[in-house]
Specification:
The chain is α+β, with helices and mostly antiparallel strands. The chain has helices at residues 2-15, 51-54, 58-70, 72-92, 140-206, 212-246, 274-280, 282-303, 346-414, 420-454, and strands at residues 98-104, 125-135, 308-319, 331-340. It has a 4-stranded antiparallel sheet with strand order 1-2-3-4. The longest helix is centred in the last third of the chain and has 69 residues, at 346-414. The radius of gyration is 37 Å and the shape is elongated.
Length: 472
Amino acid sequence: MRGLLALAALSVLLISCAMGPDYSRPDIATSDSFRMAGEEKDLPSLANVPWWELYHDEELQKLIRIALEENKDLKRAVAIVDEFAARLLVAKTDFAPQMNATANAPAFGNTKNVAFPGFPNPFNYYVQGNLAWEIDVWGRIRRSNEAALGDLLAREENRRALILQLVGGVAQAYFDLRQFDMQLEIAQRTLQAWEESVRIGQARLRQGMTNRLDVDQFEAEREFAAARIAELKRQMVQKENELSVLLGRNPRQISRGQSLTEQVMPPVVPAGLPSELLQRRPDVVQAEQGLAAATARIGMAKADRFPKLSITGILGIASPQLSQLVANETFFGVAGPSLAGPLFNAQILGFQQKAAEAQARQALAQYEQTILVAFREVEDALVGVSTTREQAEAQERQVNALRSALHLANVRYKGGLANYLDVLIAQRSLFDAELSLAATRRLHLVSVVQLYKALGGGWSPEVDQPKGSSKG
């Protein structure tokens, strides 16, 4: 008994020294601020704002909540987290002794003349308990638990990344849909204008004030607007179908809220510090946890190359006669240390360690690449936000000028002071400019969404949703 206690005490001392490298976060060079941050670089990051405070459209908020509850990919990610949580519990049980029991009752044949003294055999009635307890001398079990924990945390970050993508994806699809709504309204209004131009042209043709070429040109532009309406209707239905899948539902019509021009976005969208990105973005944290798990597996592979020290034992009762099963002489038991080490497969285990080290290098490269992509996405979104705002302002001035030009061209054409070409050019230019302005307004909103997502915003475990709202 004293020997077993001494062995257990020794194992406690040895377990604190696990083989293989201990994980530490790699040194990543980051700048003091983002290149396109502008004057807002010292303000708190936009990612600190919960999504329900960023998107003020109530219909959009409702769609996001539905997606967080019903999206099938998110449900799958939650189930994966549950799976790896169970795997971590399984890994933790390796620290404890493993015990099982077996029983035997010979039901057929003649056992009267068969009596083997000592341990049970198939001819005996017996109940036997088995004990196996691996002493984690080299830290294999400890490293196994570290790897299992890293795998679990990586899957949890994957779930958070999916939530972030889902919130941004629903918002972007919704703004796409509102763009098609606005462009459809523009196309329908333009079609009515061309209908009026065709009517006037036909009247002037009957009066001999114009030629057939003018009327044909007006009719061609009218049909171009009609074709664009059909195209926008197709894109609108397809976008509704895409959004329905994100909501975890069959394709259906999507309810609308505020128009594209009514959407409210913060006038200032600060990015915060680049160093915050390493701790905030789920995909970066996920890659880091994958690196931590791969580092722990190096220790596992290295420990497998050394002998395993275990305490094993059996305890039970056995007898050829069922009536004598509880007699004193039927009890048996033995316990003691055992040592098992690799022999012919030692070289294979060495290759496995090299494979684990190579996997860790892969995980490190993946982690560094994920950070580079994260920084690039933030910079792209920042320049997108700043330039699309300026672009939209310029295009709005362009639209106003073209509306004035069209009005003058129509007045001059009706008064016989201008030909059809002036009206045609002015109407076509206004149509294209209005469609482009709607697309740029949508692009500005989407740029804010992309910046919010690139910064790791959209969801924070420490921040709950407002009272009275359903949780995703």
